[in-house]
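Thread: "does anyone have the structure for this chain?"

Original post by V.I.:
We have the sequence but no experimental structure in hand. Need at least a predicted one for the grant figures.
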Amino acid sequence: MNGPQTQNMHPFAAPDWRDRGIAAAFALVALALYLFRITDPNKLDFDETHYVPAVRTLMDLAGIANPEHPPLGKWLIGIGMAMAGDEPLGWRVMSALFGSALVLSGVMAARWLLGTRAAAVMTGTLLLLSPMLFIQARIAMLDIFMASFLMLAFWMMAAGARAGVWVRPTPVVAGLVLGCAA
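Reply from O.Q.:
Generated one for you, tokens below.
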């Protein structure tokens, strides 16, 4: 077979405003889903019993509780508590925000990596239907922050590699958020 016959017949077109709008729409739907009744249960649940008290200790500058877990995620939970109070909404709001950022990043990563709007829409739909993502985006635990940083890094690496121009800030952003994930 000749080379041109085996090549992709549709050249890659970089994402445009429609792709960014689709990603934003998925992120807003995700945020609405994650925030719906986020204060239920109205008490610490599952591993929140470890992380929320650790956040309180960290915010009081009284030391680092459970130092085996990275402090960045605890600080992020603390930002939510500073904004919305030391109550269920405050404990969980940052998880919901980062979960919706993961959906946005996933849609954009799929668009850059797979090259079609249909693939991006399918990725967004699958992310919205993910039970694990739904639960992690509604509970004050550290996993959602790591996953969100990893997905953002994946988006930046896919964009940088597809564009073929590594002088953009994408590798720097990817490196920074990979560091945050760690």
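V.I.: this helps a lot. The mean pLDDT is 89.
O.Q.: and The chain is about 70% helix and 0% strand.
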